[in-house]
Amino acid sequence: MISIEKAYVHSFNLKKITTNNGEERTVFNARVLINRSRYNEETDQYDDRGSFWVSFSLWGRAAEAFQGLNLTGARLLIVGELAQESWTDRESGETRTGMRFNGREAALLPGSIESVKFKAAKAGETPPLPEDTASEPRD
User: Fold this and answer.
1) I need a surface site. Which of 23, 26, 34, 124 has the fewest CB within 10 A?
2) Cα 52 to Cα 31, 49, 79, 103, distances in angstroms
3) What is the rounded average pLDDT of the residues 75-97?
């Protein structure tokens, strides 16, 4: 299991599919840029260390959490496994290969969030703090 903290969403879709066993599941598919740049204090610039594009998939409840959000340009923390996949190109018929990140969890990172509105707590869950105490530390 690996985690990547600089995955920028380029394009995405969220859909329900029927699996081979007839089960309906939600899948979040995205094309993300894995940014490997690092700040260079000597040059006061960011040096690219081989950033690359990867397909990203997230299934089930984890995918459903992104319902209704516009994630284009968002910075995500993603946790899962990186795998190489092969497919036949529809136009040329050639075999192609690429990387896919099979996600287990994903979270929006604060740098891409403008505001937050919490859902109502479900039975047994700890509710979020009221807005007037949100900046105070929890006990």
Assistant:
1) 124
2) 11, 10, 17, 17
3) 93
